[in-house]
């Protein structure tokens, strides 16, 4: 039996330097069991910095959907690509680029995971911070417990449960080093699914924050001074890295990444220079190095991976406001191909 359901169409706008999520609701026939049942739609792209007012029609192409944990089953959340009026991918459609790269390197069987750090705000200040002055210096807040050390846990718990209810591959959450700063992890998953789920998890975080009068920011350096920044550490592996003696493939990948450091930095997030200073568990933006168990390196090889001789690498350079479609494209092209050039896609 079909009945009307609510489908929340979600897409990435053209705002610079950091894109935002937009969404609107369409009532469609349900229940939806496969992507082909979800109709294409359109929107006024002049209001999202993706078109001029005199020719503002752009299309929304559904590419991925999950159950809507806010409105409940059978309603759905729909990730969409943005298309030009003629049906071609819009310039801001970074997902379409990744889709081509994924097809090119499908035999490598890549997997990705992202550690998404963010800061919860209320009234233009990090949640729980005094109206004047600052809280105690950082050090006591990481994985902390108690109202004097943790701010915003109700929305964090709600978000985690919502992601699980939606069937997403959220693998954990924790309080971070700066007070009111948190992290959730998505993956490991194949590239397109990992990136789609990260964007949808962000949408859920913003949406649920409305119910708590809190909002999340992905600013790489939310507070100046002796406070940690916020990153989007990206874990990456190919089938050969996960195989016996994969550590040699991982080291070779790190060497390749070093040769294209500046090209990667160009798409690794806006204002990342404020975060990648060589302090607060970062390497300088002007330097590339990798090491085993080194959280001050550009790329970390986890100690367990080194001990076992196989596994994955962690690229610690991406900022919290990363576009995973761009990050995954860069990592695949550099480590599996001949190198990454953001100019080829008018990126950076």
Please provide a written account of the structure.
This protein has 348 residues and is an alpha+beta fold. It has two domains: 3-90, Ubiquitin-like (UB roll) (Roll); 103-345, Creatine Kinase, Chain A, domain 2 (2-Layer Sandwich), CATH 3.30.590.10. 25% of the residues lie in helices and 26% in strands. The chain has eight helices and 14 strands. It has helices spanning 94-104, 153-165, 191-210, 239-242, 246-259, 261-265, 303-308, 324-336; strands at 3-12, 21-30, 41-44, 57-67, 76-83, 111-122, 125-126, 170-175, 181-189, 215-217, 232-237, 290-292, 299-301, 313-315. The strands form two sheets. Strands 6, 7, 8, 9, 10, 11, 12, 13 and 14 form a nine-stranded mixed beta sheet that branches. It has a five-stranded mixed beta sheet with strand order 2-1-5-4-3, covered by helices on one side. Helix 1 (94-104) packs parallel to helix 8 and helix 2 (153-165) crosses helix 3 (191-210). The longest helix is centred in the middle third of the chain and has 20 residues, at 191-210. It is globular and about 55 Å long.
* Integer count of domains: 2
What's the Cα radius of gyration? 20 Å
Helical segment count: 8
Instruction: Calculate the mean pLDDT score and round it.
Output: 96
Find the structural class using helix and strand composition: alpha+beta
Name of the CATH class of the largest domain:
Alpha Beta
Give me the strand/helix succession.
Answer: EEEEEHEEHEEHEEHHHEEHEH
Strand content: 25-35%
Quick rundown:
The protein has 348 residues and is of the alpha+beta class. It has 8 helices and 14 strands.
């Amino acid at each position: 039996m079909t009945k009307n359901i609510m489908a929340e169409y979600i897409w990435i706008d053209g705002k610079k330097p950091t894109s935002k999520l937009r969404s609107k609701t369409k009532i469609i026939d349900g229940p939806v069991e496969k992507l082909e049942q979800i109709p294409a739609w359109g929107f006024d792209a002049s209001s999202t910095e993706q078109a001029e007012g005199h020719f503002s029609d752009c299309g929304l192409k559904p590419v991925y959907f999950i159950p809507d944990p806010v409105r409940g089953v059978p309603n759905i959340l729909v990730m969409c690509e943005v298309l030009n009026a003629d049906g071609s991918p819009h310039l801001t459609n970074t997902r379409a680029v990744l889709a081509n790269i994924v097809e090119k390197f499908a035999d490598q069987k890549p997997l990705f995971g992202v550690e998404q750090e963010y800061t919860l705000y209320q009234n233009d200040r990090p949640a729980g911070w005094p109206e004047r002055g600052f809280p105690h210096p950082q050090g006591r807040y990481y994985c902390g417990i108690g109202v004097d050390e943790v701010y915003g846990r109700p929305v964090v718990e709600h978000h985690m449960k919502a992601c699980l209810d939606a069937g997403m591959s959220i693998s954990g959450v924790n309080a971070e080093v700066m007070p009111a700063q948190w992290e959730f992890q998505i993956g490991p998953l194949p590239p397109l699914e990992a990136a789609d789920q990260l964007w949808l998890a962000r949408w859920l975080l913003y949406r649920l924050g409305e119910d708590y009068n809190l909002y999340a920011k992905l600013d790489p350096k939310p507070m100046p001074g002796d406070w940690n920044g916020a990153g989007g550490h990206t874990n990456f592996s190919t089938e050969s890295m996960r195989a016996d003696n994969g550590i040699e493939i991982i080291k070779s990948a790190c060497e390749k990444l070093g040769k294209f450091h500046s090209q990667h930095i160009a798409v690794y997030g806006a204002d990342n220079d404020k975060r990648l200073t060589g302090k607060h568990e970062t390497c300088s933006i002007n330097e590339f190095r990798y090491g085993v168990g080194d959280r001050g390196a550009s790329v970390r090889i986890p100690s367990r991976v080194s001990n076992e001789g196989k596994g994955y690498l962690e690229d610690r350079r991406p900022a919290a406001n990363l576009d995973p479609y761009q990050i995954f494209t860069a990592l695949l092209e550099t480590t599996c191909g001949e190198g990454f050039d953001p100019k080829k896609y008018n990126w950076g």
